[in-house]
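Dock iron/sulfur cluster; give full complex structure.
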Amino acid sequence: MTGCAITHCRSYDSTIIHDAIKEIIRNTDFPDVKGKTVLLKPNILSDNIPEKAITTHPAVVKEIGRIIREMGAGRIIIGDSPGMQTGPFRPKLSGMIEAAAEIGAEIADFRNNPRMHERDGFRFPVASIIDTSDVVISIAKFKTHQLMYATGAVKNMFGLIPGLNKSPMHLKARTPESFARFLMAVYKESHTDYAFIDAVDGMEGPGPANGTKRHIGLLMGSANSYALDKAEAIIMGYGSVPLIREAERIDKSITECSYPLLSPDQLVISDFRRIPEGRKTTVRSLFLPNLMSFFGIKHDTRPYPEFNPERCRRCLKCVEICPAKALELKDGMIHIRKNACIHCYCCHEMCPFDAINIK
Ligand code: SF4
Ligand code: SF4
């Protein structure tokens, strides 16, 4: 059974982070990195300062880099590809450029020659750096997610799909369950060897970009990303999340895990602001969808994005990212065609001015 190590880590002080990572590595099956090319994949959803808790903290990436250097790693590469990436990847604000320089790592541009992959009925481009990396380490961030409820180690590997190639994937996998299966396909193609979750500071409320920072005080690691994500979901107070349900539907043992340090059951944050789960089962919700689909009418009880005209700066990032082309600027306001919207929440995730609510 794989071990999932969870330890207290109260700040991003380099010594504290270093000790916590070493403790995690000692208590889990960490891959042999000696002489290997290692890809570190943090979550850099968009280039933001670490204090916003949108991105993996550079101190965590730096200390993992230092430790694997001590363990004899050869080439170290750091990379990610934000959803709106169009130019070269230089995430200055996130602190990742400095972190890379300090550990002698290279920054990869995932847009260079991506290769098409096919898995489990999905076809998608993946950064070719994966083909030349011997060891792949996911370094995710402890955050809520409007569509998937939580974003962790498995979903972090979605970033291997370069830039604007990501959002159209929502058209092929429109429900949280099918999107979970798609994420699992990408994850399998990534050949991830190990995963960490930076949960020193996490995000609650409407994540993954516009929620609120919350101090969690934990660092987590495992060779089993599904088990790690399950532990994260438990700590957030979810019974389960679509990704874990889909993984367990295929093979229950995927998420089986021992906890050599702290157990997630003892760490549940009772007042953590989660994304409201699922639909309420009422007579109306049982009856209405069947009736509407009988007449060929689209029915979905998931909420639609709402646009706040006071906050909106008309940057049009939401219009650009929307895979369903459901948004347009009309009379100086963003308008949504509800019958086109597929509830992927890419617009909410990419809005840099927190002008979109999902209620
Ligand atoms: S991304 Fe946000 S700020 Fe930009 S146009 Fe859309 S709603 Fe307005
Ligand atoms: S409007 Fe927003 S939630 Fe709806 S399909 Fe477009 S990006 Fe997705």
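Observed: The two ends are 40 Å apart (CA to CA).
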